[in-house]
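To whoever picks this up:

The parser on our side crashed when reading a file containing two proteins. I've narrowed it down to the boundary between the first structure block and the second sequence. Both blocks are reproduced below exactly, byte for byte. First block:
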Amino acid sequence: MITVDHTERETLPEGGAPPPRRHRWLKPVIVFLLIAIPAGYLYISAMQSRGGSGTKQEQAAATGLEEGWPSRLQRRIYEVTVAPDAEDVAHFETNSWKSSSLYLQFTTTKERLGPWLDEHGLGTSDFEDGDITIDDDEAARVGWKFGEGHHWTGAVREEDKPKPSLEVVVNLDDPNRPRVFVVSTTTP
């Protein structure tokens, strides 16, 4: 038989109501935080995306790149095109008595990269993983950084003068959204 000691009973205040709970505020605070933190994160992300195009324009101005497609004349002179429906397109042209170059960058899709390469006389077999065909001086001119920790691949299409030669580097960190960097150089 089990005996229960009733000598230490909790005494109720007058009126017989139980004592007030000490942490009534805890549950509403937790619910508020569970809603407010994701909402705040979404708001900050939306503001960063909204202001992203301004940041890209500032970055292009600082590096010499001009946002947008090169003119038809530039594309014809340098024999280079931009993949259809490409995004984040920027270009820069340099001219000197020795040579002229068009720097071009854009983001395309995996499906459109192959036809773009074919159009420029290049195939996937021409590319070597880890090969960065645009040298440091050329890259520095427009602020490109081809550092370690990324999946780079590159190829060169050499042409006889005065036809332009192409140096192409592709960032395949996201294989479905390759980022293409091109330097087309013509020498008189």
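<<boundary where parser fails>>
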Amino acid sequence: MDARNGIGGSLTGLDLRAEIDRLRKERNAVILAHYYQKPEIQDIADFVGDSLDLSRKAQATDADVIAFCGVKFMAETAKILSPDKIVVLPDLKAGCSLEDSCPPDKFAAFRAAHPDHIALTYINCSTEVKALSDVIVTSSSAEKILAQIPPEQKIIFGPDKNLGGYLARKTGREMLLWPGVCIVHEAFSETELLKLQLEHPGAPIAAHPECPPYILDHADYVGSTSGILAFAAAMPGDTLIVATEPHIIHQMEKADPSKRFIGAPGADGNCNCNICPYMALNTMEKLYLALRDLEPRIEIEEGLRLEAKKSLDAMMRMAGATVGQGDLGPVRVSGD
């Protein structure tokens, strides 16, 4: 039996929530959960939020250990910002299709082929690609940062062509786009979305800018995960169609149980193809084991970490107080 896959006999009968709470205290650990995590993981976390928000929150704590329930590039970002803290990820196989679409060697060659361009890179990328970039952006800070770059400066935007294309259309700024996509946001069907609109006339659509244009064209609001949560809280109606990973709906329902939140459908109208398969690899069992064993651990060579941190620091300088915070910032859940 493989205990790390949550099926080992050694975990049978354990009160996982109680054990995780015990280990959190013993390890002086902070537990972070992205909005796309399963509800039970969100509910046990100290902070729930966007990836960079979470890393900055953890950086500000006196925790010795960061348990990041998200995907690998998020845990790496936490390590870049908190090199003296132990950072664990419940499952090292929790990757990202955007990161996979942009191998560092190919990105380096692409940059070398366009030496007059600077690289504006979405945070959904590896540490190595961050080190090859000039400025990292989040979905909430990208437009503000883009506005500060002289119009004559040529720009490579990667790895998400949908986010880059959305920014280009909105700002009129031409950019050379790396051809990466998020498999979750590519899964939404325009036809099924239109059917859903007919079933719920008047219900607005909130979409993440990682969605393709044929989804964004129907959206009443386009923004980061934190921004979508803010829109859900402020909208006057009682029904919202949500075009991003559906586990974000858990926070919406907790904030306002009187409203109805409907996940945008995939190709056949009711598939689970818009659930991130990488985020789903994290489980309560694996979180318990990560805290117990302090493994799998994120390690980054110091020279690489410092190179990657330069592009993150550039973002923080250019975005100021708004960096990575969307419209809400992380939601504190522990002790609520």
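After patching the parser it read the second block fine. The longest strand covers residues 29-34. Residues 5-9, 321-336 have pLDDT under 50 and may be disordered.
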